[in-house]
Amino acid sequence: MRPTGKITPHLRKLRTYCVSPSFRFLSRKGRGVSILRKRALKRFFTVRLMIQSFFPPLLPPQGKVGIVAPSCHAPAAWLDAFEKKLMERGYQVVVHKQCSLKNGTLAGSDAERAQALMDMFVDPSIKAIFCVRGGTGSSQLLERLDYEAIQKNPKPFVGFSDMTALLNAITAKTGLVTFHGSMGWSFLPENTDARTEDSLFAMIAQGGCTLPLSAIDVDREGAAQGRLVGGNLSLLQTLIGTPYDWSGENAILFIEDVEEPLYRIERTLTHLRLAGKFKGVRAVLVGEMVGILDEKPDLDPQEHTIYGHSLKDILRKHLPPAIPLAFNVPCGHGRHLMTFPVGASVSLTLKQGQSVMEVTSCL
Question: Are 221 and 349 found together in one domain?
Fold first, then answer.
């Protein structure tokens, strides 16, 4: 049985008190009270990070599902392919009218995209929410969402890439487990992979708890348990210092990125390390890192300066030493994309050819 949970009344009261005008006024009247406020705030954020995450209800057979576009505008062919695939699985499909909007490269204004997502969450007939594509723009929605309403209407929310911001923000603010998994892009004919589809519906419709990782490249063997957190490296960086930040404490961290030069990868990893995001991490899973520029064989050396350090060497340099580490994990922009439950408690075993992740909070 999947556990449920919510922000407790005493935690909500503490949060309200910490940000109240009266407490702010008192904080300005004396250093002692200011210290008291800082301690109270620290206590609130510590407790918030300890809130037990909970799974949404499983997607029922023949259930109604919604498609939204929180980031970039998607071509009609992407929507058609995604809708067709979901209908073939027996689901009723509702494509939000917002998906047809276009505002520059985005699928509508920030307000329109946020409203579309909230429409899907508060509609009791919608049993799961899928994103048609990533790109950019999801982080602009974070302050526009009603997290209390989302918490009261839990359902599977699925996406990856730019959706990393939404996945981690929703989990951080509500405790709801979200799903780093396939979008409409994954179901285009040139990208289709049966393993991707099977992983998605095994997780959100069947409550599958075992994720085999036998084909990955294990760099350091070992076992670890912790809360699963991660997603696109660039988007994880954008959350640092915001109210939607994530913690690596006691976490199994997975990261991926796409079409980034190595110097940017190293700069991002340096920022995360200096910001303390790797402290307390118990294991790291690195995705395929598709299209990293310095590793393309067709680069013209006269027009492109090679960075001079390999991707693996950069990752080993900045990630914590002596913890289980694996590369080439199917959690990124490759054709094979496993669905990972962000915020769930997991048990990970990394052993060459025999790696597996068990979602312990499913049991």
Answer: yes
> Taking phi first (over 0 means left), then psi (-120 to 50 degrees means alpha), and beta for anything else, what does residue 76 get?
alpha
Beta strands in 124-188 (DSSP E): 126-131, 157-159, 178-180
Find the helix packing angle between 31-49 and 9-18, rounded to 10°.
140
Whole-number Å distance between alpha carbons of 95 and 79: 8
The string of pLDDT tens digits covering residues 169-224 is 999 999 999 999 999 988 888 888 899 999 999 999 999 899 999 899 999 999 99
What burial class does residue 261 get, using C-beta atoms within 10 Å of its C-beta: 0-12 exposed, 13-18 middle, 19+ buried?
Answer: middle
**Parallel/antiparallel/unpaired status of strands 283-287 and 126-131:** unpaired
- Of all helices (H) and strands (E), which one includes residue 286? strand 283-287
Beta strands in 149-259 (DSSP E): 157-159, 178-180, 210-212, 217-220, 222-232, 251-256
Q: Which domain holds residue 227?
A: 211-297+306-362
